[in-house]
Amino acid sequence: MARYPAEMQKALESLTRLPGIGPRSAQRIIFHLLRKPLPETESLSRSLVDLKSKIKFCSICGNLTTASPCPICRDERRDHRLICVVEDPKDVIALEEPGKFRGVYHVLMGKIVPLDGFGPEDIRIKELIGRVKKTHPREIIIATSSDVDGETTALYLHRALKSTGFDMNISRIAAGIPVGSALDFIDPTTLMKALEGRRPF
Question: Which residues contact 83 (CB under 8 A, 6 or more apart)?
Answer without folding.
Answer: 103, 104, 105, 106, 128, 131, 132, 137, 139, 140, 141
